[in-house]
Write a structure and sequence with these properties.
With about 160 residues, this protein is an alpha/beta fold. The protein has one domain. About 40% of the residues lie in helices and about 20% in strands. The protein starts with a helix and ends with a helix.
Length: about 160
């Protein structure tokens, strides 16, 4: 996948999605780690990568629902793969902030808010424009995730983990 994108000069879009699963059987070690802080349900997180047209390239690297998105990407080895392909760019959401510094700005996240209070109006307008532009480019990964969830491709293969 990374070789394909790097050779074609395309960018990728990544996000993680939670898929509801049945709770592991009683007495199973690590039973509580599947409870997600985000959805307050028993869930497994799947990493999804699409190209810039929204075509699904990868879905996997499963982690428990309590795992942060940035940890999931690091454990999947994406940082090391990006080190081998310097011309590749990946769009990500705010859950991946900090990866840009590790990868030499190859992972692009939405901008940080500089002022919490009393921001100049021009700065606030620019911030809103930048976030909206980033979100508009990233919407394709959400469509890829919706396609997986509509067909229940992930839930069929994830029963008890």
């Amino acid at each position: 996948m990374i070789d394909h994108l790097g050779a074609s000069g395309q960018s990728a879009i990544t996000d993680a999605t939670e898929v509801r699963v049945r709770r592991p059987a009683q007495g199973t070690e690590g039973r509580d780690r599947f409870v997600s802080g985000e959805s307050k349900q028993k869930a497994v997180k799947a990493l999804v990568v699409t190209d810039d047209q929204g075509q699904l390239l990868f879905s996997g690297a499963l982690k428990s629902g309590s795992c942060p998105d940035i940890t999931q990407v690091r454990d999947a080895g994406l940082v090391e793969l990006l080190g081998q392909h310097r011309d590749l760019r990946i769009l990500a959401d705010a859950g991946y902030q900090g990866l840009g510094a590790q990868t030499g700005d190859q992972v692009i996240t939405p901008p940080h808010r500089k002022f919490k209070k009393n921001a100049p109006t021009w700065r606030e307008e620019r911030f809103i424009q930048q976030r909206k532009a980033h979100s508009s480019r990233r919407i394709r990964v959400e469509h890829g995730i919706a396609h997986l969830k509509n067909w229940r491709a992930l839930t069929r293969h994830l029963g008890r983990c």
